[in-house]
Amino acid sequence: MNLLRILRQDLGNIIHNPSLIFSNTILPLILIGVMGFVTKGGFGTEPVSSFDYYGVNMMIFSVSMIAITATNAFMEERVKRGNFRIAYAPVSKQEIYLSKILSSYLLSAICYGVLVPVCQYVLRLNMGGSNFIYFVLLLNVFGFCGCCFGTMFCCIFKNEEQANSIMQIPLFLSIILGGVIFQIHRFDSFLNRLSWLSPVKWAADCSYQIIYDNDLHLLYPVMIGLLVLSFFFIGVCHILFKPEDYI
Amino acid sequence: MSILLKNNFERIKHHKSVLFIACIVMPVFICAAIYISNHSTSHEVIAILNSDIPADISCEQYTLMSVEQQPPLSAFINGTYAAFAKKRTDGTYSIITLKGKQDKEAIQSLLTTGRLPADYRGDDLKRKERGIGTNILGFITMLVLMQGVALTTLYPEDRSNGTFRRILSAPCNENQYLAAQFIFTLICIYAPTFAPIAIIHALFGVEIGFSIADIAVLLLLLTVFATAFALFIATVFDRNTNLIATGISVVTCIIAGCFIEISTNNPVLAAICKMIPQTEFMELVHGIEFGKNYFQFRYGIAYILLCSLFFVAMGISIAKRRILEGEY
């Protein structure tokens, strides 16, 4: 019950932050448009146009950036004091960090739950046709993992600015290794093997299969992998998060 | 003003995360950019169905490979194969590729006649011809623009905790304050960007496409612009300046052609691209790398400086107006 109440408060905080909303709704569309336009010459129209290609890739890219939303929701200077006044109330510490994870997860679920069908049916991009629902499902799990990741960094560094700046390194490394910005398949084999460590790579490969091959083989293994990773991050949060540190 | 400047340097020491990014993450990213630009990739692969590869095909841009069955579409997406070709009964090939029409025709002629059209340039070759230095500086342009706003962090902080008002009630006006911020940001971007490039080039002899002096001049121009942009953004927006600046710089850098060369036939879009100062900067960089001199780009350089001046002037006037309105 308390969890729901805190959750509502956190969601309110996120919604009142225009740049977070902007970066999860309009920005992916702008990125798809810009990247698609810029690389138009390198692609044919059949079977995959540049807009289709970057539609999928930029979607995955923006979902991986949800970790930044999570750190902002947790510890941005303006919401931090309010967030930690809850520590005085009789709520358990799980409820505090879980509500932050859940509120940013809900934001990503809603935003991308709307964006993917809009891209598929309004903008006519290939998001898997009738399979788009599996793509949305995958993005949901992936977004959840990202939120846990962001919250974990908050618990480690106890400060939004620091958490964000340090988090950028693993985040950008896994995005680049995931190959969603440029293909890394043709770089040497060492980089290739390294890329299998990146969850972004799992999500990207799985979505390519769903969308282009109509093949759901990778979906469950990848989802389970991402969930295991999320539980690991939550475990770290649980160990490191001490509300009394913030008072 | 010098006191303000000194104070800024004292204070930034306590922003460990900003320092961490500036002194460790930036050099790492720059090294990565240089590594990737210098590193040749393996050739793109054309898969041919069940046929022996014609022995007389000579091609420097593609590798041919025989496959048992048609690869799934996702193998094209992740870059395993560039194209798939199947021989028709009449000796021509049906080709599946994500690439454009021109590339498709080139591959067709490669398979039927044994060589690519003489004037054909594939994606890899285009990238190579653009110049290593241009590729590296394109990436650095984006990093520097993002970094500028991150380093101006003291200015929004001063406003939110009231230091700004206290500074202004001392014998110091907003021009001096902003000038101090400007110099501070300029130094803090320039040093950690220039140092790793110079070290890599001078100590390890890695090819960067420019002489050290050219890099120093080009980076200075870039940092002046980035600093002006950062001051403007930090004045106009109150919160989440980092997020906003990242968004703006990524998008403008992509359309300015910092990563891939842009060519468009649409006059409106071309005009928009032309308006972004980074476009001029990339043209300048490309020209210098291929041996032109700065004088040929005087208008471009003037435009970049003019834009910087505009951003600074806007920043100062907005700050002044808000001070008069008593917002701080």
What does this 3D model show about the protein?
The complex is a heterodimer of chains A (247) and B (328). Chain A has 247 residues and is mostly helical. Chain A has one domain (2-246). Chain A has helices spanning 2-15, 18-38, 50-64, 66-75, 77-85, 93-122, 132-157, 160-178, 189-194, 199-213, 219-240. The mean pLDDT of chain A is 87. Chain B has 328 residues and is of the alpha/beta class. Chain B has 2 domains: 2-38 and 130-324; 44-123, no CATH class. Helix content of chain B is 65%, strand content 7%. Chain B has a 4-stranded mixed β-sheet, covered by helices on one side. Chain B is elongated. At the A-B interface, helix 2, helix 8 and helix 10 of A face helix 2, helix 3 and helix 11 of B.
Secondary structure: elements and pairs:
The complex is a heterodimer of chains A (247) and B (328).
Chain A: H1 2-15, H2 18-38, H3 50-64, H4 66-75, H5 77-85, H6 93-122, H7 132-157, H8 160-178, H9 189-194, H10 199-213, H11 219-240
Helix pairs in contact in A: 1-6, 2-3, 2-6, 3-10, 4-6, 4-7, 4-8, 6-7, 7-8, 7-10, 7-11, 8-10
Chain B: H1 2-12, H2 16-38, E1 44-49, E2 62-67, H3 73-77, E3 83-87, E4 93-97, H4 101-113, H5 123-129, H6 132-151, H7 154-160, H8 163-169, H9 174-204, H10 212-236, H11 241-255, H12 267-275, H13 277-289, H14 298-324
Parallel strand pairs in B: 1-2, 1-3
Antiparallel strand pairs in B: 3-4
Helix pairs in contact in B: 1-9, 2-6, 2-9, 6-9, 6-10, 6-11, 6-13, 9-10, 10-14, 13-14
Label this structure with key terms:
heterodimer, A: 247 residues, mainly alpha, B: alpha/beta, 14 helices, 65% helix, 7% strand, elongated
